[in-house]
Every structure is written in C-alpha cells, then in structure tokens.
Amino acid sequence: MSTERARINVFDTTLRDGEQSPGCSMHHQEKLRMAHQLDRLGVDVIEAGFPISSDGDFEAVRAIAAVVRRPIIAALARACRPDIERAWQALKDAAHPRIHVFLATSDIHLQYKLRITRDECVAQAREAVRFAKSLCDDVEFSPEDATRTDPDFLCRVLDAVVEAGATTLNIPDTVGYTMPTEFGELITTIRQRVKGIERVTISAHCHNDLGMGVANALTAILAGARQVECTINGIGERAGNAALEEIVMAMRVRPDRYPYDTGVVSEQIFAASQLLSEITTVPVQPNKAITGRNAFAHEAGIHQDGVLKNPLTYEIMTPKSVGVPDSKLVLGKHSGRHALGMRCEQLGYQFDRRALDDIYRRFVRLADKIKHVEDHHLLELIRDTHKPSTSATPLIEPLAAAASATAAATTPSNVPETPKPFPLATQTNAFGVPVPAQAESHHEQEDYLWGV
Ligand code: KIV
Ligand code: ZN
C-alpha cells in the first residue's frame, strides 16, 4: 500500500477576494508587504489582484509579479479581451504568471446579470480561455456561482474550457450556498464527466455565508480537488472566504482524516494574520480559530490546571506550531488557584497553599467586579494583602524578599526590596510553556479539585 500523501496547492486570494471585504482594501505598498509574508508562509499561488479594476490594482499586481519570484502570481479577469489583456500586462514579468478567467454559469446570473443564453455562455468561456492561453500557458477558469448551476450545463462549460487550454478548473461556491456532502458530490461528478479532466487541476473556492467554507473546501479535497482557494483570517466578500489557517491546520492536526501535505510553513501563520490585521486595521475576532487572541487562552480553572500539567489536555496543536509566542492563561472569575499561583510565580511571588487560598479569595472578589485580572491588578492585590498593618505575620511572602532574607544583614534597611522576576528554577514543557514543579502523586486528585 502506498503511503505517499497527495499534495494540496494553496491558492491565497487575500489580496484579491479578501480585499473585496468591506474595510479591507489595501494600497500598493501594503499589498507588496503582504505578498512578501505570503511568500514566507509558503503558499503556492498568490492572487495579487484584478488589474482591470483600477490603475492602483494594476500597479500592485505588476510590482508583486516583479519581486515575488517563488510562487505563481495570478491575476483575475472577466471573460473578455480587455480584462485578459490588462491582466497579462500586469503579469508578464512574473516568474510564474497565471491568468484567472471567470464567467458566471448559473441561470440566475445568465438571465439577470449577464443577459446571455447558455450557448452564448459556452462560446464566451471558450473564446476567453483560448485568448488567455495565447498569452500565458497557465490559465485558470472559474464558472462563477458553480454550485447553483445545473450540473449538466456546468460540465458542458468545463468541457469547452478544458478543450480551449485551461489548466486549472476552479469551482466556486460564490454565495456560500452549498453543503459539504453536496459539494463533494459535485467535485466527483466533474471528475467523472468532464472530458480531459485528468490533465487539469480541480480547485475549490468556498465562501462562508452559512459558515461552511472550510468544511466545504476540506470535503472537496477528499473528493479529489488538489487546489484550495482561501484567505488569511477568512476575509472576503460578505461572510468571507474559507480561512487558509483553518484548512491547513485541519489537515495537519487530523492527518488520519486528511492525509495531505501543503507547502505552508505553519509557523508563519500568526505573523501573516497579524500583519493583515495591522494593514487593514480590521481586528481578528477574538475567538477566531487558530489566529484569534483567545485561540490558545484558557480561563476556566479546570482547563488551566490541565494545561499547566500537560498542554495536550486542552490544546490540539501547539501555539508554537502556528507561530503564536506562548500559551496564554487568562485570569478571570473562572480561573483557579493553580493558574493564579503560576502567574504569581511569574511575577516573582511564591505562596504556600494557605497563603494562596487567602489571596485567591480576594482575587475571586476582584474578578467578579472586573472582566480580566491583569498583572498590575494582581500585584496591587498582593501588595495590599501584604500590608504590614493587616497582619503581624504576613501570610504572603514575596519570594524575592524571602530569598534576600539571609542577605538582610548586608542590605541597608532603608532600601526597599523589589520583587525579582520569577527567581525559582522553572521547568518548561515540550511546548516551551513554563510548568510548576511536579505535583506529589498522592496530591494529584486533590490538586485537580483545588486548582478550580
Ligand atoms: O466567489 C467567486 O465566484 C469568485 C470568482 C471570481 C472565482 O471569487
Ligand atoms: Zn470568491
């Protein structure tokens, strides 16, 4: 049995379909910066823009084509000569150019938008691809609104464009209407019925109007698609496009279900997401899978306790694997003693159980009032609890003060002690996350409850 895994080409359309997202338009220099990051990310194709749409977009595509030399650079064109010529003018200096021609094929688009018959649609698609092919070897064709197109007619259009020289057939779910099994069946139908299909790459382009973009893209891969079109952070028209990071990490985390490889350097995902957000000034939704700020944050006490003991308890991938600097324990009203103690240690304080219980009670009262307890709140709380007037024998002893107790004789009494940053020898786990010293085994069940 062959163990070879199929390679999936990642076609990034952040700079074209993503840019069509409200508030996400990018200038020339911004597109160029983003294109360099997409190159570092290892995508196979960068769709750099739609050159006929504006002079700015034309120049941006041209600049990207001139300097980003490893990936294929694609430019979009409607199925007409002026668009295709303009796309080619922008692309012609690329190391690997691709013209991407699209034409709607659903009856609703033909009747109301294009006002052409099915026969005219087939002829226009064929002519456009033939013309694009006369300029560029690599031609992709997209039947817009494919998932609402009569499948027999869709196959007829695809037959014509393959014959005219298309090398990639991209199947767009333009309005995010299809469902995973249905989309998989459509890809299977195309594989079975389109003449010459074995010579071309099938691609999936899924929108997220019903939240199915990634599921549809993954199902298309299972059905034989070998290119996926996607965007960073899932930006794009309306509800967006399938998110690159989600597709790639689904394949990486679940190779048992999706035994495919991509060229994506997953450690560059977070940087790409952050750069896009910085350029567009559109923040990433906090609970966005993979790239949201909460994607690796744990607030509930039971979760925090588990993650500190072993991140695999609640993390299916490491933050590091997608370039997120560190796992983040959020201190809020659901947090437990374990996480609180850990954060205190990181701030330079170590408490025994009784002392931590005391500080924990105050912490819970505070967390009830404010959403997130930040480090400065915690330091204030520690200092407050530690006020000499509150107790003759303070329950809480700053570690730095304890460590320096023996040196007290040589320390002038009027010099205040400043807590040192976490002076205990910490251990880090395989993911680089600091873990506390091993719990004694007979305390483990108790710790689990106490940690909450
Ligand atoms: O969603 C869509 O149909 C598109 C095409 C231009 C590929 O973006
Ligand atoms: Zn689209």
- Shape-level CATH architecture of the largest domain: Alpha-Beta Barrel
Which blocks of ≥5 consecutive residues have pLDDT under 50?
388-443
Give the ligands present: 3-methyl-2-oxobutanoic acid, zinc ion
Q: What gyration radius follows from the Cα positions, in whole Å?
A: 28 Å
Counting helices, strands and paired strands, the structural category is: alpha/beta
Helix content: 40-55%
Tertiary shape: elongated
Oligomer: single chain
Tell me the number of helical segments per DSSP (H or I, 4 or more residues long).
Answer: 16
List keywords for this structure.
single chain, 452 residues, alpha/beta, TIM Barrel, 2 domains, 8-stranded parallel beta barrel, 16 helices, 14 strands, elongated, binds 3-methyl-2-oxobutanoic acid, binds zinc ion
Summarize the structure.
It contains 16 helices and 14 strands. With 452 residues, the chain is α/β, with parallel strands linked by helices.
